[in-house]
Amino acid sequence: MHSFIYLASQSPRRQELLRQLGVHFEMLAPAPGEETESIEIPLPHEKAYDYVQRVTLAKSKAALQRWHKSGLEWAPILCADTTVSIPNSADAEILGKPTDAVDAARILNLLSAQVHEVLTAVAITVTPQAAPLAFVQVSKVQFSAVSPDQINHYIASGEPFGKAGAYGIQGLGGAFIPSIEGSYSGIMGLPLYETAQLLKRAQVTCI
Questions:
Q1: Minimal CA–CA distance to 79: which of 67, 71, 90?
Q2: Number of H-type helices and E-type strands within the chain
Q3: Strand, helix or coil at 117?
């Protein structure tokens, strides 16, 4: 059994959720100057499911290379990525993190009064030689109709930035969500049940 893992994500929400599972982890975040943003650029006509899976596996590969250069002892490496999608919408197949306030408003207007999907891919590299164990969890989320004033006030709070779909269900954005079908923690960025099953397969000690 492994007593800890490496987390190749700087998301404070994923750190919080791993602690909730009782998992001990060390950070294996990108080094300063390491190119990571290009991985997250969608390919032409790429579907959200394929996108989030591809990005997570690419992050896993980059994290393994980072470990090889680090001189650290081995432990499984966990990577994850989350995206938001209004499936089969030309404007909203993949809704990532907003680039600025204008982009955040665009995304929130697209989500207003719509059902959208939140897709979170998780991958664990169990040994340096093996392909990662991975899955994609999909939740459906009903978004309420939001007015321009509500959108402007929400953007002014700063919460939309750094979050796929420009909202955080665990924060102020939860006031816009009347119902979900799926995993609340998956919408936050790490589905607890599925991740716990994957950690067990990787022989990692957790709750």
A1: 67
A2: 6, 6
A3: strand
**pLDDT (tens digit, 9 = 90+) per residue, 49-71?**
999 999 999 999 999 999 999 99
pTM recorded for the entire structure: 0.94
Contacts of 125 (CB under 8 A, 6+ apart): 60, 63, 64, 76, 77, 79, 132
The 3-class SS string of 118-164 reads EEEEEEEECCCCCCCEEEEEEEEEECCCCCHHHHHHHHHHCCCCCCH
> Could you tell me if 62 and 39 are in contact, meaning their C-beta atoms sit under 8 angstroms apart?
yes
Domain ranges in the chain are 5-201
What fold does the segment set 5-201 form as a domain? Answer: Maf protein (3.90.950)
Residue 103 is among the residues annotated as catalytic for this protein: no
165: nearest Cα among 90, 92, 113: 92
Structure confidence by residue, pLDDT tens digits, 62-95:
999 999 999 999 999 999 999 999 999 988 999 9
Residue among 81, 91, 100, 103 flagged as catalytic = 81
